[in-house]
Amino acid sequence: MEYVRLGNTGLKVSEYCIGSDNFGGQTNAEDSLRIMSAAFDGGVNFIDTANSYCDGLSEENVGRFIKTRRSEVVLATKGRSQVGPNPNDVGVNKKYVMKAINNSLKRLGTDYVDLYQIHAPDLTTPIEETVEAYNDVVRAGKARYIGVSNFSGPQLVEALWAQDKNGFSKFNSVQPRYNLLYREAERELFPVCEDQGVGVMVYSPQAGGFLLGKHRNFEAEMPTGGRYSADFRAANFYKTTYWNEPTFNAMEQFMTVTEKYGVSPMALALKWVRSNPVVSACIVGARTLEQLQQNLVAWEEDVPNEAINEATAIGDYLWDTAPWKPQMHNNPAPATAKA
């Protein structure tokens, strides 16, 4: 396991970050603890959760795990989602931000998090108010670093500018969806991160298991269990994004590349994301201990640069030509193999 700086900070994180959005939902408490323990035994030191995951149960389960290992854990959580019945129980206004971080700390059983993130933009709150609220969280000692998730490039620029203008703590990381089949972050977000020294921790590097070849029949019924199941909170996004004929065709070409070079689909999907020099870490979720163990093995698997480059060509064609996706132009951060 390799450890890297998160953006321009001095914080060292494992390139593999364990995602916990299933902990307390599709994965019960006992299995969640087993998965986290196995991940840390494998060299992982980074966990990402959120106050909305499994209605707070994810943070509670992560809290149980870190209780005796707090000093070795780089702990990240997020706030912004609706958690509570009141009109101010959502967003990133000054009232809710402090309430949300305090509630997260209570569920996690700790007095600080290493990284506190905005889960998604809040267009109802002025960015100046938001950055002041997150600056207050840092000054109160409740978070060591701050970041954002699901921000576009222009939204990140606006936030960084407001922070710089007011002398506030700056966002140190961004968390976008990114994989071979979904590359919107390359258009505007990655260039901003590269220019401003913002760390990138991507989620969904395996497209919710789609790039693993789990689903090979476009005409088949939707599966039960996993990211495409009705009981997963974001299932509709996965279905509308990946469950279409062009993406199935791209996945089959991807599988052909794995067979040609004798590498596992999991390893190629993960190595492709890691090959982009802008990416600091990958958030990899696992519903079962077996999946976690498979991920750790794949993480160390040797993948030749030729396989990465051929996979890139497949993704280029899909992303540039698919009619339901925006065209990419002058991509400044292509996902080609690192030297």
Describe the 3D structure.
Residues 17-314 form the NADP-dependent oxidoreductase domain. GO terms for molecular function: oxidoreductase activity. Keywords: Oxidoreductase. This protein is α/β, with parallel strands linked by helices and 339 residues long. It has a single domain (3-321), classed as Alpha-Beta Barrel (TIM Barrel), CATH 3.20.20.100. It is 40% helix and 13% strand. It is built from eleven helices and ten strands. It has an eight-stranded parallel β-barrel with strand order 3-4-5-6-7-8-9-10, surrounded by six helices. Strands 1-2 form a two-stranded antiparallel sheet. The chain starts with a strand and ends in an 18-residue tail after the last helix. Mean pLDDT is 87; it is low at 326-339.
Which key phrases capture this entry?
339 residues; alpha/beta; 10 strands; AKR_Detox_Biosynth
What is this structure, in a nutshell?
The protein is an alpha/beta fold and 339 residues long. The protein has helices spanning 29-41, 57-66, 94-108, 127-139, 153-166, 189-196, 235-242, 245-261, 265-274, 289-299, 305-321, and strands at 3-5, 12-14, 16-19, 46-48, 74-79, 113-118, 143-149, 173-175, 199-203, 281-285. Strands 3-4-5-6-7-8-9-10 form an eight-stranded parallel beta barrel, surrounded by six helices. The protein has a two-stranded antiparallel ribbon with strand order 1-2.
